[in-house]
Amino acid sequence: MSGQVPECPPWGGTDNPFVQTPEDPGIMRILIIIVAAATIGVAVFSLTHGIVDIYPYLFLLPIVMTAYFFPRYGIAASIIMGLSLVLLNVLFVGENLPVLSLACVTFGVFLGIGGIVTMMSDNITGLKKRYQDIFAMSEAGIVIFNQDDGCITEANSGFLAPLGYESTRSGLPAFCDLFERTEQYRDLVGAVTTAKRITDRKCSLQTATGTLRQFQISARTFAGPFILCTLMDITERKQYEDTLRQSLTEKEILLKEVHHRVKNNMQVIMSLLELNALKAENSFERSQYAEMQGRVMTMALIHEKLYQSPVSGFIEGEAYFSELLKNVVSASATPGVNCYVRAPGIFLDIDKAIPCGLIINELATNSLKYAFHHRAEPEIHLTLVMDNDGICVLDYGDNGEGLPDSYDFSASETLGIRLIHMLVRQLKGVTSITNKKGTHFCIRFPLNIHERELRASAAQIAEQTTIAQWA
């Protein structure tokens, strides 16, 4: 906000809504003495003219003023003014017993009123001291300003020190002039006026040297036109967060590069296996090399998906398993196999993705080798879902000829089946097999808390990914 800085009253100024102690105690004492002298003068005038009903009430004014502003002298002021009233009546009324009795009663009333006002003043003083102690000792910045012109009436050291000011008298401008942009102040006042209270609003304030510091502000309306704000200096925290965010971004880039290089190295291994397969002396050796290539390809694909994933360190299941089955089928000698994959919202970390990928590779390889010899339209179905207990259910099936009735899956000694058993144990899962209209494997294994959370926010992740692709 440009223009001339409004003249703001200092701490304890007359515009401060909390002040009890007079700004100048000496002037207040003189004023009380003048009021007391004037009261006695009026009393003398009234008594000499026979007026005895009204003037006693005037004695309350210096009593109340003294008891309120100087509570330690409140009772003394009550005694002095009460004795003055009694003496004036003795001097001017003489032996009029009813009038003297009334003066004595009034004296007692003066003592009561002076004592009550003194106690109230003491309570107000105690509350004020407690308020000022809390105000001054608070580590959070506290500032009270007039919303009409932005003038600061009170501010503690938690507000002044980060901005480079020693007190409200040391050239502190209006609160509205501290904001980086004028609309920030207007938005703050407008929000407080509308909602009566706001919390956790971030803004930039200018220091005495012209630099900017970041603050988190909470504010509410306070005592008429005033607004009370609490401010937390978050400059260092924000810088630290920005540093962490930059470091995290750099590490994510580095990790993606590592995954990319691992994938390239595995492709080199696949090429070496293929060269060795060309030198194989029989079809059995060539098939063994092909199976090894398939396993390496499975892990290479995992690292490719890791550096492409929208969620660092996790693989989106449906895309990964769809491409995995597509690659397995294309590398086989069984054409025309239709693969159907459904894994809605399933994200797996690398410790789950590698075992699952190798299991699917082994099952799909076996299906392509043995299940579709007499099947016109071969199909492979793969489903991954999470149940209510956080268990992932992996269901793999084909429409092939099925396993022989005499086949014992748990007792098989082939490398592929032994590998499946080992990988299921690694997943801490259990396996069940059905052999009706093809072979169906069901593997149940637990997901960790991060995988369950990603499943819950899968729709939001998909939306962010789509936006990033279009951006």
Annotation keywords:
471 residues; alpha+beta; Beta-Lactamase; 4 domains; five-stranded antiparallel sheet; five-stranded mixed sheet; 17% strand; disordered N terminus
Produce a short descriptive summary.
It is built from 13 helices and 12 strands. The protein is of the alpha+beta class and 471 residues long.
H/E element string?
HHHHEEHHEEEHHEHEEHEEHEEHH
Number of strands: 12
CATH class of the largest domain: Alpha Beta
Q: How many separate helices?
A: 13
Tell me, briefly, the overall form.
rod-shaped
Oligomer: single chain
Query: Could you tell me the strand content as a percent range?
Result: 15-25%
Rg value: 44 Å
Measured distance between first and last alpha carbons: 37 Å
Low-confidence stretches: 1-19, 465-471
Please bin the fraction of helical residues.
40-55%
Named CATH topology of the largest domain: Heat Shock Protein 90
Major sheet: size, sense and barrel closure?
5 strands, antiparallel
Widest sheet: strand ordering: 2-1-5-4-3
Mean pLDDT rating: 81
How does the helix and strand content classify structurally?
Answer: alpha+beta
Count structural domains: 4
Name the CATH homologous superfamily of the largest domain. Histidine kinase-like ATPase, C-terminal domain
What is the annotated CATH architecture of the largest domain?
2-Layer Sandwich
